């Protein structure tokens, strides 16, 4: 499955409460689609997308392998099979549901225990909705506390979806390059 010529293969996991838009962000990014019925299977599905990012004047290619969970996995399943080996994670909440914002700390801590060095992006999704309740300031505050990326996205309109994955890939590749130098 590894594309010939990819400099890097980067595993990325989707984290966050149910129905925040994890699968929708992945579908928008990998297939540029939105809103179709997804198969509500139990378990993990995987999507792949190749990216090219320019780092210090040189094009680097990577294959992003996106891991998406369906159903309600147990905490142990999450740690053992899902998060292990990730270079990146995106941590999604729904700006119309504050409870999904309050869960972020838990998701973040659980992920950090497994992948202490991975690139993490905080994703405020569904910003197209008029009934937004979690303001930008709340997301930015958490971004500063955790020291992660922050993006406001809409899987519906596509706003910031490419930027999310490309920015994460760029930082993850830079990290790999630093490791190669050491
Ligand atoms: P999940 O994978 O995190 O569980 P899904 O979430 O991607 O299945 O999305 C849950 C619901 O939110 C879906 O609606 C989906 O269409 C909607 N959704 C996801 N992202 C956005 C967004 O950016 N804007 C808006 N307005 N809706 C979004 P249904 O109705 O199928 O439950
Ligand atoms: Mg899903």
Description:
This protein has one domain: P-loop containing nucleotide triphosphate hydrolases (Rossmann fold), CATH 3.40.50. It is built from six helices and six strands, in the order E-H-E-E-H-E-H-H-E-H-E-H. It has helices spanning 22-31, 75-83, 98-102, 104-114, 136-146, 161-181, and strands spanning 8-15, 43-55, 58-70, 88-94, 119-125, 149-152. It is globular and about 45 Å long. It is of the alpha/beta class. Bound molecules: guanosine-3'-monophosphate-5'-diphosphate and magnesium ion.
Summarize the structure.
With 182 residues, the protein is of the alpha/beta class.
Question: What keywords describe this structure?
Answer:
182 residues, alpha/beta, Rossmann fold, six-stranded mixed beta sheet, 6 helices, 37% helix, globular, binds guanosine-3'-monophosphate-5'-diphosphate, binds magnesium ion
Which small-molecule ligands are present, each listed once?
A: guanosine-3'-monophosphate-5'-diphosphate, magnesium ion
Helical content class: 25-40%
Count of separate DSSP helical elements:
6
Uncertain residue ranges:
none
What's the CATH topology label? Rossmann fold
CATH architecture: 3-Layer(aba) Sandwich
Trace the largest sheet across and list its strands.
Answer: 2-3-1-4-5-6
Query: What amount of the residues lies in strands?
Result: 25-35%
Question: SS-based structural class?
Answer: alpha/beta
Tally of discrete structural domains: 1
């Amino acid at each position: 499955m590894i594309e010939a010529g990819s400099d890097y293969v980067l595993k990325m996991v989707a984290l966050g409460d149910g129905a925040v838009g994890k699968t929708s962000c992945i579908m928008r990014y990998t297939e540029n689609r939105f809103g179709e019925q997804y198969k509500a299977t139990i378990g993990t599905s995987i999507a792949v997308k190749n990216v090219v990012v320019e780092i210090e004047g040189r094009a680097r290619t990577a294959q992003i392998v996106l891991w998406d969970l369906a159903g309600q996995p147990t905490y142990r399943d999450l740690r053992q099979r899902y998060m292990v080996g990730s270079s990146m994670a995106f941590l999604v909440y729904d700006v119309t549901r504050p409870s999904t914002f309050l869960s972020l700390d838990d998701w973040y801590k659980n992920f950090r225990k497994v992948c202490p060095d991975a690139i993490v992006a905080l994703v405020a999704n569904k910003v197209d909705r008029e009934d937004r309740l979690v303001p930008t300031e709340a997301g930015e505050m958490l971004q500063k506390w955790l020291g992660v990326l922050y993006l406001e996205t809409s899987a519906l309109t596509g706003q910031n979806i490419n930027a999310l994955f490309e920015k994460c890939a760029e930082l993850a590749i830079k990290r790999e390059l630093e490791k190669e130098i050491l």
